[in-house]
Amino acid sequence: MRSFRTLATYGFLGVMAFVSVFPFAWMIIGATNTSADIIKGRSWPGSALAENLSTLVTTNNVPEILYNSFKVAIIGTALTLLVASMAGYGFEVFKSRFKDRVFGGLLLLMSIPFAALMVPLFVLTGKIGLINTHIGVILPSVAALSLLFIMFYFRQATIAFPSELRDAARVDGLKEWQIFAFIYMPVMKSTYAAATIIVFMAQWNSYLWPLIVLQTNDKKTITLAISSLGTQQLPDYGALMVATILATLPTLLIFFVLQRQFVQGMLGAVK
Amino acid sequence: MKSMKSNGWAFIMPAMVMIGLFMIYPILSSLWMSFQTGRGMNLSFGGFDNLLRLTEDPVFLQALLNTGTFLVVQVPIMIVLALLMATLLNNPDLKFRGLLRTAIFLPCVTSLVAYAILFKSMFALDGVVNQTLIGLYLIDQPIPWLSDPFWAKVLVIIGITWRWTGYNMIFYLAALQNIDRSIYEAARVDGVPPRAVFFRLTIPMLKPVILFTCVMSTIGTLQLFDEVVNLTEGGPGDATLTLSMYIYNLTFKFMPSFGYAATVSYVIVVLVAILSFIQFYVARDRK
Amino acid sequence: MRLNSLKSTGSLGAMLTAGALSLAAGTASAETMLTVWSWDPNFNGDSMQRAMARYQAEHPDVSLVVADFGKDALEQKLQSQLASGSNQGLPDIVLIEDYAAQRFLLTFPQAFEPVGEHVDLSGMAPYKVALATVDGTAYSMPFDSGVTGVFYHRADLEAAGFAQDDLVGITWDRFIEIGQSVEAVTGKDFLVQPFNRTDLLRLMLQSAGTWYTTPDGAVSLGADPRFRKVVEEYIKVMTSGIVQDAAGWTEYVGAFTSHDVSGVATGAWITAAIKANADQAGEWAVAPIPRIDGIEGAVHASNVGGSSWYVMAEGPNTEVALDFLNDVWAGDSDFYADILADKGAVGSLLAARHTAAYDAPDPFFADQKIWADFADWLGVVPEVNFGVFTFEAEAAFLAYVPDVIRGDAALDDALETYERRLTQAIR
Fold it and tell me: Which residues are in the ABC transmembrane type-1 domain (chain A) (predicted)?
């Protein structure tokens, strides 16, 4: 019975993992094939990787594009995590009926499709003078893309934050911000880890807003570069595959590094 | 100042300022827009004309129906799968845990471009999926995944589930860390069967996060855009057209009707309000 | 209201700046950087760069920077910006696809410079000028002509006992017969079309001088008998078994470049995709598109997916942009010969037909003089007003007519629903 269950577990997870990885593997194979071969559906590794890479770096300023993407994603992620976790904490720990109403209202804001806000947001960004700047990308996309969502997530996660910890800290004379910074933040490590992955991914992949705000090639992020590569009349799919791998790796690395946070408690229990 | 400190508004303020500036203002502006009618920039106040137009617009009704279908069918499948996988992956005795976790997370970081090209070739009439199904004698005619209205919807559901299940799983994995393992140990010592542990222990402990993912997935599905554009382009015909894609078309592809597009956007808001209320109500603490 | 007031003060500002610029042009140190938004940097962007290289011979103080976006992305970006009324960061020149031209011109009437008032467009293919004309004023510098042909693997045609000439000057009905004979021998469909697109219908409609809507904005179905006739012919082609359904753009290009189908009927810009397969050199041929029988004025020439340059009225360097277009794009045949030879770009300047490049045989097409052919067809493409509702019409068409092609609905019923929906959408 037990061995059957183990077998079923591995079987199920194995199939899921295979299905999940398959398109990714295909993308890597694609990066080694010529564009014409990719179009014809060739599905085994080829020898065009170097050629594809050189096409990509000669037609695009790859270091600059990556720099722009990292800049926007890192600042955006840090800002979102800080502001959202503070708010999530504030809403849950200092609960009041009025705050709950405010929170409910904020939740609804999340449901407005971004396309409906784009034109007024552009007017606003223009008035502040942030068109074609990275700050002009970051501030509105932090506010409209992930802030509410992560605030909601932190609030839900904070429900499990033991109030005894906070009470003890108060008795010890810690100020509220010290409780947040020195007690809450370390305790909620796995929540921060998960949120970092989610927000970084959202900021890194964000497309619609940077497209509208950024005007010149030297400000472009990688999603914009991929979009213009992929919609040509004859896209170079080989170079495109290399670019998509470049676009995927950072989030994947972050996941790889931070996933330890998910298992740490578990390891502690085994020891 | 003291009251500010102790009632927590200071923690909330930075978020409120950002949201106020970059969301409330554009939202008010778009709300105003939803009462405007006309083409392009020649807008005039139309009162509730846009609401009336909704009721007699066959495309809107089709998009609403499609979006509702995706929501009702897809979200439950995804949530159950994600929960199941998170629970299985949380087992400390499981080998290759890190590898499996990363693999299952992969789809949501895989580039949409690559995934669209591959999915379309896999699900083509003579693609690998049909060949496999025929090889297994499950079907004898290839399934027209892209050109049949029913199967195109199935394909979109497969696509969203594939892309977002691992993503939802992360939230559950992170939340499972908050459960004290000794509870599980105790249950095991007491001989509680695994199924009962899952339903009596895991699910109740994860309730806040499950509620969170349900609300977020509801919002995500009501705003569904990427998968549809990349896999089926809303077709065949309007068979997989979603509300978000219709808003996009009304704003950018068709002769722009900014006011009407804003009105359709607020349909999504109202739907989210109703559905979130129901979800919170079902998940409320019964005392 | 708000937009209009912004616009008018804006254009005053632009005039002042332009004036200041032409004054400054006297001093040697003044430098002007023209900004262009376009898609497809290898094709459109590079053509623009080459034009600038020529312009710089006389105007060393002018330079060019091209920002690349996807085509849909560019339309979306331009539309958001124009709707916001902000001039900040507007380019000098943008590329717009023909199908979207009237929509932009009519939605944002003061955003675009009437190019025809400053530049002599008389040497351009008339249908291209007509596409961007509003109330008698032309607003674009015609570029990619979108002139069409039937591209095919010669061996397939010959295998069924036909010669290249058998495809010249025929009707669609004859084309279907030939396609079916070829398929009987080779087992391959003759043409391909991405599912959820109507490129073939676009091609047939314009070749017959009609479109989804009439020039005065009515639904053609009730008002123009030619429309229904074309649709009937289109359905005949689609149900004849000679057109393969492709799952998307990639699969579409894959079908004819990997020889899953015998060929493709579309704009000359597809040549680049065909030539990317060097191993197929010498195997290809081009025929004029078939004519629709029974419609007066229907020809063997059409336009699919062409595009043109537009000058932003409130761009930073409007005057220079116009001078640049006038100098190179409006009359320099050598320039057009250059982008034809290197890029396969068939521009819209009729006089370029007389350059050596256009007369050269192309070895990839077994020394057929395909460019001379395209240039000849360019002159006879019928003028059509695409209006502003092309995408609404195609969405409605694709919602109902494919059922007829599959045999699940009657044509009359489908067209009736199509007409009702389109009328509702454009009211």
Answer: 66-258
